[in-house]
Amino acid sequence: MAQGHTITIEQGERHVRAVHGDQVLAETGRALELRETGCPTRYYIPADDVRTDLLTPSETHTYCPFKGTASYWSLPGAPDLVWAYPDPKPDVAAIRDHFCFYDVDVS
After folding, report:
1. What b/e readout covers 83-101, taking b as 16+ CB neighbours within 10 angstroms?
2. Is the pTM here over 0.90, yes or no?
3. Above 60 in pLDDT, residue 67?
């Protein structure tokens, strides 16, 4: 990691739910909590707990020097709503096979 930049990943104990409109896209008690310097806490949800059948792969890809290349998925009217790191950097390998949403409900 760059000096002063940290990423921590912990097994979360909270209930995490991603909803768009009236559709539940993901719901889990097994999300990983990723904390990164300068960013809000992100919840990475196991693929088994995500309604991937509702998502369409996007052409969008972004690169993070700390996590690797992210791929995105969309819903009609909601482009690039979800992302994942199919081949994350070794320091964050735990997020492989997990999806992240911009907005989630946490309880």
Report:
1. bbbeebbeebeebeebbbb
2. yes
3. yes
